[in-house]
Automatic annotation (TrEMBL):
Organism of this sequence: Solanum pinnatisectum (tansyleaf nightshade)
Keywords on record: ATP-binding, Cell membrane, Glycoprotein, Kinase, Leucine-rich repeat, Membrane, Nucleotide-binding, Phosphoprotein, Receptor, Repeat, Serine/threonine-protein kinase, Signal, Transferase, Transmembrane, Transmembrane helix
Subcellular localization(s) per the UniProt record: Cell membrane
Biological processes annotated in GO: defense response; response to other organism
Enzyme Commission number(s) from the entry: 2.7.11.1
Catalytic function, reaction form: L-seryl-[protein] + ATP = O-phospho-L-seryl-[protein] + ADP + H(+); L-threonyl-[protein] + ATP = O-phospho-L-threonyl-[protein] + ADP + H(+)
Listed PROSITE patterns: LRR (PS51450), PROTEIN_KINASE_ATP (PS00107), PROTEIN_KINASE_DOM (PS50011), PROTEIN_KINASE_ST (PS00108)
Superkingdom, taxonomy of origin: Eukaryota
PANTHER family hit by this protein: LRR RECEPTOR-LIKE SERINE_THREONINE-PROTEIN KINASE EFR (PTHR27008:SF602), OS04G0122200 PROTEIN (PTHR27008)
Protein name (Swiss-Prot/TrEMBL): non-specific serine/threonine protein kinase
Length: 692
């Protein structure tokens, strides 16, 4: 066995490896090896008759597979050359590899057709050919591979039919044909694949009705039929898929109602029905889907009341866009539903009810008046706790805040900080608020409150959290903030049911950089935030980022480059000079912003358990830059089969390069926030241009 994977080895792979007569396993993946255009080292390795496994993944071999690849002995079981810039066609001689069980050729530049000789690889169990430039049709001979468990042909230029004979390959566990040019109907006999776990035909031109027989895929956990041309009704038989966790039927021409049977898919976590012509009400049966974390019904013709049960409690308006006839709670941003009594007034009964209501209402007014007078006497301090930061806004009393948060109930708690707790509040007029209540029992809470008030009452920027008013007396201090329905960046990065794509993350970083540039350069007195991290970046309804929490911020007087402090910020995000000497400058924020960028695009916290000893997130990223950047970035940002994969990788390289320049040890050597903002805007422009 020769195991040299995941290093930084360079040079040409030597042909002398073919002299290792008893070699069984050769693993050179994740290096920087090269080869001549004919990959002559592969020819030499055919002399090693005991070879069982060959792995060359992620090396820039930049050559073609020659006919000699068919000369390996029948002992070869594992053959992997992913991401090696292979060109040309797959040779017919590959069919000679009758012992191969696992073959992976994905993420190359292979062209031509899938050779019919592949039918001779009768032991093949897993075949990965995604992210190439393969053309032609799916050959029927694949159906003769009776042990085939995984077939991934996604991200190619394959056209024609989905072979109906695939329904006879009952060993299939994974079938991915997404991102091709398939244009047929889905064969009904695919329902024979009783053990199929993943079925993905997204982003083709498939048409015809969705087969009822897909309801027979009892083991399936993922079905993605999105971005095709399926018409008609959604089969109610899909409701019987008890193991299904992910279902996407988005971007089709589906009409009719959402099947009530969907309420039986009790394992469902992800449901996307957006961009269709669905009508009727959203079934209340969906309230039974307690594991459902993401749902999208946008851009349909749905009507009626949005259910309010378990999975619907945390949804946002993004799930229901462009369904004008839907109604529900105001925080979802749809019209309110009319009560049944409003819809159907009924003569004397309504009149009697009205008199009864008015009588009870009068008594309530008297009772409330009495209670208010009592409260004013017993809680005089609280009633006087009104100091408005925004003059044009009506002042909000302690009692209103108490009522809005249901007595500062834990069920309305949005988050906690060093000196405060933030609650969701709803005023009587339906206005949503975030109420930041400071714990006055803690040393430093008064100072934190005063600092945040002092800074935010004078700052105005679209990417800073807007303070509506404050409420303050001797024993109660709170800030009333604009409510951010999508929570924090931290929540979106680390919740398994939420996802931010590359452009969304980049846009949020631009929002943060814009806010920080304003703090550093756009205000008469430079402001150093001192605690920039994902939990202090809030996201509004449109997923626009807002920097929040100025509790330990510092103001720099005119001419001051830095100040000193004993206040400790969050470990992992603080600049070296801040942690060692308490020196605070705008460069400290730049450092934190660099760490924030690394975390956002790697999805690794600075406090992650892998960072021990001298290994920090900055060191980890730096050591991988530039050639190994694919090892550290969030793998979900660049998926195999993505037609824009090169542009996205270049975008990530540029972002990481900027993040590294923000986290240099010497403060004066770091990028300025103004320059960081400009660089990110240019990166975004290049990314968007490459996708059009």
């Amino acid at each position: 066995m020769v195991e040299l994977s995941d290093n930084s080895f360079t040079g040409v792979i030597p042909e002398s490896l073919g002299n290792l007569e008893y070699l069984e396993v050769l693993n050179l993946e994740l290096n920087n090896y090269i080869s001549d255009s004919s990959l002559s080292f592969l020819t030499s390795l055919t002399n090693c008759r005991k070879l069982r496994a060959l792995r060359f993944n992620e090396n820039a071999l930049d050559g073609t597979l020659s006919a000699s690849v068919g000369n390996f002995s029948n002992s070869l079981q594992n053959f992997q050359v992913n991401g090696c810039k292979l060109k040309g066609v797959i040779p017919r001689e590959i069919g000679n590899l009758t012992g191969v069980i696992y073959m992976s050729l994905y993420k190359n530049e292979l062209t031509g057709h899938i050779p019919n000789t592949i039918q001779d690889m009768f032991n093949l169990q897993e075949f990965y050919l995604q992210s190439n430039e393969i053309e032609g049709t799916i050959p029927n001979v694949l159906c003769s591979l009776k042990d085939l468990g995984a077939l991934d042909l996604s991200g190619n230029h394959i056209s024609g039919l989905v072979p109906s004979c695939l329904g006879n390959v009952t060993s299939l566990r994974k079938l991915n044909l997404a991102y091709n040019r398939l244009s047929s109907r889905l064969p009904a006999n695919l329902g024979n694949l009783q053990d199929l776990k993943e079925f993905n035909v997204s982003s083709n031109s498939l048409s015809g009705y969705i087969p009822l027989e897909l309801g027979n895929l009892k083991a399936v956990t993922l079905i993605d039929l999105s971005k095709n041309d399926f018409p008609g009704k959604i089969p109610s038989t899909l409701g019987g898929l008890a193991e299904l966790t992910d279902l996407s039927l988005a971007h089709n021409r589906l009409d009719g109602a959402i099947p009530d049977s969907f309420g039986k898919m009790l394992s469902l976590e992800y449901l996307d029905l957006s961009y269709n012509n669905l009508s009727g009400e959203i079934p209340k049966s969906l309230e039974a889907l307690v594991y459902l974390k993401y749902m999208n019904f946008s851009f349909n013709k749905l009507s009626g009341e949005i259910p309010t049960g378990s999975p619907f409690k945390n949804v946002t308006s993004q799930s229901f866009l462009s369904n004008d006839a839907l109604c529900g709670d105001s925080w979802i941003n749809v019209k309110p539903c009319q009560s049944k009594s409003t819809k159907k007034p009924g003569g004397k009964r309504v009149l009697i009810s009205l008199y009864t209501f008015l009588g009870i209402g009068s008594l309530l007014v008297l009772a409330v008046g009495y209670v208010v007078l009592r409260l004013r006497k017993t809680k005089k301090n609280a009633s006087q706790a009104d100091v408005s930061l925004v003059k044009e806004h009506e002042r909000i009393s302690y009692y209103e805040l108490e009522h809005a948060t249901e007595g500062f109930d834990e069920s309305n708690l949005l988050g906690t900080g060093s000196f405060s707790m933030v609650y969701k509040g709803i005023l009587k007029d339906g206005t949503l608020l975030a109420v930041k209540v400071f714990n006055v029992q803690l040393e430093g809470a008064f100072k934190s409150f005063d600092m945040e008030c002092g800074i935010l009452q004078n700052l105005r920027h679209k990417n800073l959290t807007k303070v509506i008013t404050s409420c303050s007396n001797f024993d109660f201090k709170a800030l009333v903030l604009e409510y951010m329905p999508n929570g924090t960046l931290d929540k979106w990065l680390y919740s398994h049911n939420l996802f931010l794509n590359l452009l969304q993350r980049l846009d949020i970083m631009i929002d943060v950089a814009s806010a920080m540039d304003y703090l550093h350069n756009g205000y008469s007195t430079p402001v150093v935030h001192c605690d920039l991290k994902p939990s202090n970046v809030l996201l509004d309804q449109e997923m626009v980022g807002h920097v929040s929490d100025f509790g330990i911020a510092k103001l720099l007087d005119a001419g001051e480059a830095f100040v000193q402090t004993r206040t400790i910020a969050t470990i992992g995000y603080i600049a070296p000079e801040y942690g060692q000497d308490g020196i605070v400058s705008t460069s400290c924020d730049v450092y934190s912003f660099g760490i924030l960028m690394m975390e956002t695009f790697t999805r690794r916290r600075p406090s992650d358990e892998i960072f021990t000893g001298e290994l920090s997130i900055q060191r980890w990223v730096s050591d991988s830059f530039p050639s190994g950047i694919h090892k550290v970035v969030d793998y979900s940002l660049v998926q195999p089969g993505d037609e824009h994969i090169d542009a996205k990788m270049q975008c990530l390289l540029s972002i990481i390069e900027l993040a590294l320049s923000c986290t240099l040890v010497a403060p004066n050597a770091r990028a300025r926030m103004k320059d960081a903002l400009s660089t990110l805007q240019k990166i975004r422009l290049q990314l968007v241009s490459s996708q059009h």
